[in-house]
Amino acid sequence: MEQWYRNARQYLKQYRFYHGIVEQAVNDWEGAEKPRRLQQMELYCQRVTNAIDSIRDERQANLLRNEFIVADGSQRVAYELSGLSKSQYYVIRKQAMREWLQLINQHK
After folding, report:
1. Which of 86, 93, 102, 106 has the most CB atoms around its CB within 10 Å?
2. Considering the entire predicted model, what is its pTM?
3. What range defines the domain where residue 15 resides?
């Protein structure tokens, strides 16, 4: 597996972890000044979802959403919802990761 691909997957997995923290903390800090680290996590999550939303090919965007963004998402869920053959799925997933990584790096 190529290094850029491993990095992109790790970045998206980190999103899932941060998103869980941010979602839990929203109610706890509502109306109060949020800690700086929590603000950074929120910004990170926004950047990830904005980049996915900016992917031009809707199939690619949906693959990433269904794997990393939706609550019970996973690679299996994304594959099943895609309706693609396994080989098509992996080709489109790799294209989606590449485009997402380019978009996220543009907005740093």
Report:
1. 93
2. 0.83
3. 3-106
